[in-house]
Amino acid sequence: MLIQALDICRRVFGEEHVNYAVSLNNLALFYSDKGDYPKAEEMLKQVLEIYRKTLGELHGSYAQALNNLAEVYDETGKDREAEDMYLQALDILKKAYGENHPDYSSTLCNLALFYQFRGKNDKAASAYRQARDSFMAQIRQQFSFLSEDEKEKYLKRVLYFFRTYQSFILKQQANDPSIAGEAYDIELQAKGLLLNSDKQIRNFILNSNDTSAIRKYNSWLSLRASLSREYSLPLSQQRSDLKLVEASANDLEKQITRIYSQKSGLKELQNARWQDVQKSLKGGEAAIEFSSFPYFNGEKWTDSTVYAALILKKGDPYPRMVTLFEGRQLDSLLSGNNRGRGQFYKQPL
Fold first, then answer.
1. What is the pLDDT of residues 220-234, one digit of tens each?
2. Same domain, 19 and 163
3. What b/e string do you get for 79-104 counting C-beta neighbours within 10 Å, with b at 16 or more?
4. What is the pTM for the complete model shown?
5. Last residue of a domain, one of 243, 271, 299
6. Which ranges of 173-322 does DSSP label H, i.e. alpha helix?
7. Helix (H, G, I), strand (E, B) or coil at 34
8. Looking at the 3D structure of the chain, how many domains does it have?
9. Domain that holds residue 231
10. What is the sign, positive or negative, of the torsion defined by CA atoms of 294, 295, 298, 301?
11. In DSSP terms, which residues pair with 289 in a beta bridge?
């Protein structure tokens, strides 16, 4: 299908057109995923040349193609070329979109992984922190205004970064115990994102006694039901103003989300840090966040999931990250093989 689409673009637009470059980029990513890196590299170089001629080198699409080529170089051991491409892409994205754009933070995450895989932990830590700051700025500025579909797509990107960063933190805390504070903040951020869900919003709005908010919510439900009926019809029978109805539904959803964010205390949670939690603790109390994430062993990603507790006490200089067990141990416990229970973490807080 991708080859067929590329052939159609070639015949319709020619090989110097942006649409042809987009199709060629998609095919290159397919070959990269399949491990055919020479083909992917050749195609991505062609994509870059087309974008350079048609869009210029300060365009987001050009930067994204640089990132894609950097990933190919990353996989094939061309470290110098990969690092250079990542840095070029970041510089372009910063100029084109600023530092609080999803493409900028995702490229930073790729650069952090690049450094992590090569044991350049200081550089990896710096890139991770910059990516974290970028993602958190986006969450504060944009997340509450997204529709549910937009949130779902954004969540996948952000939660992937959170889990990747936590695996790095787990390895680094032996050298820098204070880095566990960042893992604690990540859990607070993740909780805030998950609370900003369709179900949470519905329950809050309907129990708010805010007649204006409830009216908007019911109007939104009515538009969604209407759209659902339209989507079930053949295209020839769908209403002519369907795009306008979709836009109205999307706008209403964003208004409802904004009301929820402002009145539910969600903004406070999204802006919270472990220091804020610690201030609310009394002597002898502890606030514990639980986390799970895929494990990177310093050379590659494993098929293991790590479960950890982040423990914060009143007088602690920073939280502690304690590994509890791996996914296989939990599977063994749940399957009825309980002989290893005593091997799990047991220690006073």
1. 888 877 887 787 676
2. yes
3. eebbbebbebbbebbeebeeebbbbb
4. 0.73
5. 271
6. 180-195, 198-206, 211-231, 242-263, 266-271, 274-279
7. coil
8. 3
9. 198-271
10. negative
11. 310
